[in-house]
Write the structure tokens for this entry.
Amino acid sequence: MATDGVQVLEAEAGAAGPGCEAGAAGPGCEAGAAGLGCGEPGAGREAKAPSEAVSAEDSGLDHKCLFCKIGNEKEAVELLHLDDQFACFKDVRPGAPHHYLVVPRNHIGNCKTLKKEHVSTVEKMVEVGKSVLQQKGFSDLADVRLGFHWPPFCSMAHLHLHVLAPASRMGFLSRMVYKSNSYWFITVDQLIERLKSLPGDSKS
């Protein structure tokens, strides 16, 4: 593991807690999926500040968003899954032997912007992630880490599910970056529970 990744992680821990998935900070810089820096397309550019994140209500495509481009085949990235709603591809800096990202093809903001009606979206993302794992020959779904980085510890304003397996083989740094139900990483189960507690219609 690169020492600069460890140093960045330690710096984050001292300031606001460990685990920003992004930057050059070791495993989990999913924005590197196309060999680019985190945040906006183009190496070295900074991620959007939380105040600039696009909310969950904003639909359609953000033509400046890397994940919108990847999900709609505008970037030279191998897609492991593609349907009308979601795309899945490898994280270029994997935190486990299997590390995939599931993203909605339309632009949806980070997990903090979601509402009760997005429960089904999250559940479908989980189904896609598990399906890709099985296609890749991994069947022990009890040994999988599924979750999202919680702002401000997320590099991309586009909703993306981390699918890591086997969780039991994650290294020390990865276990920190993707620590279950920490204040920087929320598991799927915890997020769904949170969304269901919000006011709104969960049937859409």
